[in-house]
From TrEMBL:
The chain crosses the membrane at residues 488-509. It comes from the Bacteria. Signal peptide: none annotated. This is 2-octaprenylphenol hydroxylase. Pathway: Cofactor biosynthesis; ubiquinone biosynthesis [regulation]. Pfam families: ABC1. GO terms for molecular function: ATP binding; kinase activity. Belongs to the protein kinase superfamily. ADCK protein kinase family. The keyword Membrane applies. Keywords: ATP-binding, Cell inner membrane, Cell membrane, Kinase, Membrane, Nucleotide-binding, Transferase, Transmembrane, Transmembrane helix, Ubiquinone biosynthesis. One of its GO terms (biological process) is ubiquinone biosynthetic process. Residues 97-342 form the ABC1 atypical kinase-like domain. It comes from Paenirhodobacter enshiensis.
Length: 516
C-alpha cells in the first residue's frame, strides 16, 4: 500500500505540527537557521487546517506527536533523553511520552487477558490495579497472583496497535523512497534500509512472547553483574498480547528529585548505566536497546532494575571487536588507528585517503577531551560528524543502528543524572577490560580452538574430498581454467584442514588452548 495516498499522510504530519504550535518549537530547539525556519513556516501555514488538533491539555510537541500515532511517539521517546540536543524544555515535554500516555480502560485490559490466557482475571489474580504506566504500544497493571501471592506486573498490548503501527510505517516507507528519488545524495544513508530495520525491530514488540524470551536471555547473561537486576517472566502466563513478570520495586530513574531524596549517588548511577550498557554490548553482544529512563528503576539498595525488553540489540563478535577498537582509539586519541579500523572493516570506501580521514576524526574527537557535558553542544558535534561521514562516503550500517541509537539514549540517561559526566573516561575501564580479554595471545588461542572445532566437522569428509579432487583432475572439462581453479581450491582446502587439525591436536596435547 506504499502509494501516493501516503503523500496525504506526510502533509498531515507537517500540518499537525503547524496547527499545534509544535513546528516553531522544534525548529527553534534544533537551532535551524532563520532562513530555513521561515521557509518551513511559510510552506506549512497553508495546510495548517489539515492537521490533527490533538489534546489541548498537552504541551505543543507532545500534543502533535501523540495525535500522529505510535511510530511518532517511539521517535519522540528517543529524543526525550537528549536535552543537550533538543534543549531542556523540549526534552521535558517529550518525557511525557515515556510512560505517561492516556491509558485504555481496565475493562478492555481484562477482556484482552481473558481472551489471551483463557481464564477470567478474577481467577488469575487476587488483586489487579488500574494502569500504572501507559506507553505507545502497551500499558502495565500491578497485580498479585492468586496461586502463590507473587507480586507481578501485567503488560497488555493496546487494542488495534498493530494496524495503527503498520499505517505509520507505510508512510515512513513512502517517505524514504521519495527522499532517495528526489535527493540521490541521500542514498548513502540507505533510508529505506533504515526504515526496514526499524520496522522489523518495532514489530517484534507486538509479540509479548518474544519479550518474555528476551527478558529470560538477558537475565541469564547479566546474572553476575553487580548492582543490576532483571525481573523474571512468568512463562505460564505469557502470550502474544499479555506478559506477566516479577514486579520491579524502585524509584523511576527519570525522577531525579526522588532519587536525590532517597540518598542515591547520582554520579555513581550515571556511571553504572553507561558502563553496564557497554558491558552488555561488548561482552555479550546482546543489549537492552530501549534503555531510556522510563524503562529503568533504582532499588532501595542502589541496584539498577531494567524492564520492557521489547527491543533488544545483537551484534556479532567481529563487529564487537571493531566497535571496541574504535572506542579505544578515541579514548587514547589515536585517530590514525580509528581511521584504519574503519577502512579494515569496510566502513569507508578503500579509495579514500586514510590520513585525511584520521585528521577529520581528530577534528570531531578532540573537542570532547577536557570538557564536561555542560560545555559540549552534542547537536553541533553530531552535525560535524555527519559532515565527515558524508565527505568520506560512509554508508549507514543497518547492523549498527540499534547500537548507535542506544548509545545516544544511554548517554542521555547518564547525563541526566550527572551533567558533568565524561563519557570517554567512564567507558575506558569497560573497553580496556574487553580489549584485554579479546585481543592478544589468549584470544588468538581461543579463536584457533574455535576454528579447529569448526574444521573438525569436515574431517570425516577429507578422504572423499581428496578422492573427488583427484578424479576430477583427469576428467575432461569444458572450461579448463575453471576446472583447474576448482581442483586447486579443493586440494588447498584439504591441506588447510589437515594442517589445522594438526595444529589443534598439538595445542590440545600441550595444554596451551585456553578455555573461554
Amino acid at each position: 500500500m506504499r502509494g501516493p495516498h501516503n503523500i496525504w499522510r506526510l502533509i498531515r504530519t507537517g500540518a499537525t505540527f503547524e496547527r499545534t504550535g509544535a513546528m516553531r518549537e522544534v525548529l527553534e530547539a534544533l537551532e535551524v537557521p532563520a532562513r530555513l525556519r521561515l521557509v518551513a513556516r511559510v510552506l506549512g501555514w497553508p495546510f495548517k487546517w489539515l492537521g490533527y488538533k490533538g489534546d489541548p491539555a498537552l504541551p505543543p510537541v507532545t500534543r502533535a506527536i501523540t495525535a500522529l500515532g505510535p511510530a511518532y511517539i517511539k521517535f519522540g521517546q528517543i529524543l526525550s533523553t537528549r536535552p543537550d540536543v533538543v534543549g531542556p524544555e523540549l526534552a521535558a515535554q517529550l518525557g511525557v511520552l515515556r510512560d505517561q500516555l492516556p491509558p485504555f480502560s481496565v475493562a478492555v485490559a481484562k477482556a484482552t487477558i481473558a481472551e489471551e490466557l483463557g481464564r477470567p482475571v478474577e481467577t488469575l489474580f487476587s488483586a489487579f490495579s488500574e494502569p500504572v504506566a501507559a506507553a505507545s504500544i502497551a500499558q502495565v497493571h500491578e497485580a498479585v497472583l492468586a496461586a502463590d501471592g507473587r507480586h507481578v506486573a501485567v503488560k497488555v498490548l493496546r487494542p488495534g496497535i498493530e494496524r495503527a503501527f503498520r499505517k505509520d510505517l507505510d508512510a515512513f516507507h513512502f517517505a524514504a523512497g521519495m527522499i532517495e528519488f528526489l535527493a540521490p545524495f541521500s542514498r548513502r544513508l540507505r533510508p529505506s534500509d533504515v526504515v526496514n530495520h526499524f520496522e522489523s525491530t518495532v514489530l517484534g514488540e507486538l509479540d509479548l512472547r518474544l519479550e518474555a524470551a528476551a527478558a529470560s536471555q538477558f537475565a541469564a547473561n547479566t546474572a553476575n553483574d553487580p548492582n543490576f537486576r532483571v525481573p523474571a517472566p512468568v512463562w505460564e502466563m505469557s502470550s502474544r498480547g499479555v506478559m506477566v513478570m516479577d514486579w520491579a520495586e524502585g524509584t523511576p530513574m527519570g525522577d531525579v528529585p526522588a532519587l536525590k531524596a532517597a540518598g542515591h549517588d547520582l554520579a555513581a548511577l550515571g556511571r553504572n548505566v553507561l558502563q553496564l550498557f557497554l558491558s552488555h554490548a561488548l561482552r555479550d553482544g546482546y543489549f537492552h536497546a530501549d534503555m531510556h529512563q522510563g524503562n529503568l528503576k533504582v532499588a532501595a539498595n542502589g541496584d539498577i532494575i531494567a524492564f520492557d525488553f521489547g527491543i533488544m540489540g545483537q551484534i556479532d563478535e567481529y563487529t564487537r571487536r571493531v566497535y571496541a577498537e574504535i572506542l579505544m582509539g578515541f579514548i587514547q586519541r589515536d585517530y590514525r588507528r580509528v581511521a584504519e579500523v574503519h577502512f579494515e572493516a569496510g566502513y569507508v570506501p578503500a579509495d579514500r585517503d586514510v590520513n585525511a580521514f584520521a585528521l577529520a576524526l581528530r577534528a570531531v574527537g578532540e573537542p570532547i577531551f577536557g570538557m564536561n557535558a555542560t560545555q559540549i553542544s552534542m547537536a553541533r558535534l553530531l552535525a560535524h560528524l555527519f559532515e565527515v561521514t558524508e565527505r568520506f562516503g560512509m554508508q549507514t550500517r543497518t547492523e549498527l543502528i540499534l547500537l548507535q541509537r542506544t548509545m545516544v539514549v544511554v548517554e542521555g540517561v547518564a547525563r541526566s543524572l550527572d551533567p558533568a559526566l565524561n563519557m570517554w573516561e567512564t567507558a575506558r575501564p569497560v573497553v580496556e577490560r574487553y580489549i584485554r580479554e579479546n585481543f592478544g595471545p589468549r584470544a588468538v588461542l581461543r579463536d584457533m580452538r574455535r576454528t579447529a572445532m569448526v574444521l573438525s566437522h569436515f574431517a570425516p569428509r577429507l578422504p572423499e574430498m581428496l578422492q573427488t579432487a583427484l578424479e576430477r583432475k583427469d576428467a575432461p572439462a569444458p572450461k579448463p581454467a575453471t576446472h583447474r581453479a576448482s581442483t586447486v581450491f579443493l586440494s588447498t582446502a584439504a591441506v588447510v584442514l589437515v594442517l589445522a587439525a594438526g595444529v589443534a591436536v598439538g595445542l590440545l596435547a600441550s595444554g596451551q588452548i585456553i578455555h573461554p
